[in-house]
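Dock magnesium ion; give full complex structure.
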Amino acid sequence: MIAVEHLVKRYGRFTAVDDVSLKVEPGEIHGFLGPNGAGKTTTLRMIAGLLEPDSGRIVVNGHDLAARPDAAKASLGFIPDRPFIYEKLTAGEFLRFHGGLYGLDGNGIHARVREMLDLFELRRWEDELVESFSHGMKQRLVMSAAFLHRPRAVAVDEPMVGLDPRGARLIKDVFRRMSAHGVAILMSTHTLEVAQEMCHRVSIIHKGRIIAQDTVDEVRRMAGGHDEHLTSVFLKLTGGSGLQEIDEVV
Ligand SMILES: Nc1ncnc2c1ncn2[C@@H]1O[C@H](COP(=O)(O)OP(=O)(O)OP(=O)(O)O)[C@@H](O)[C@H]1O
Ligand SMILES: [Mg+2]
């Protein structure tokens, strides 16, 4: 599980994350939606322990991140929006290195690395240098690394960006399977169709504040209408389509 309580992050006088609370239960896929600059990445980086909150509390799988950072981080898989991968390593080397950071070693790690390479359809490239990988292959490699140590919770920042339909399908299937096995997944996305298709619940963040938090159906109903597509609900909640502004400057 991932529990975030009254989280605040300020940059000078600007409040990027403003009293955000959310909870992702075991087995839940929770969508984190909001326009550019809303505070999604900032929140996810705090959950991953990469950025210190000004106030609020984060609990990952029962471990308070401030009090027990090692235990909290060891039980989380984090997939950043712009991952860093050592380009001069092969896929297999990268995963074994990553596993080592999480305390995996010995014979077990080789089998686990192969399992991940198979799952993310990268086995053929085990001994190829990462620098030769396409964007989609790198994305799948980063996913393999995040799931390698069997985390019970995963925080992922825009996993579908730049993936072809087959790659996107694969990632969706893996997330669904992981959630069926009880993994809690918090996923930021701009792809409302993805949220609608995959998420049990969503939180919508706007200017650092949560403005809606519920099931997709309930959020849609709240914005006035059962049949409405999540896209128009989102535009309503965050203040219009922007088309008027475009008309004004054209
Ligand atoms: N290091 C920083 N210093 C100052 N302001 C920052 C810093 N990092 C983020 N911000 C600001 O905080 C706000 C939230 O940024 P964040 O990256 O969390 O948004 P986001 O919801 O992930 O947006 P996107 O959809 O574009 O990825 C933005 O206004 C951004 O400019
Ligand atoms: Mg972001």
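Observed: The longest helix spans residues 165-180.
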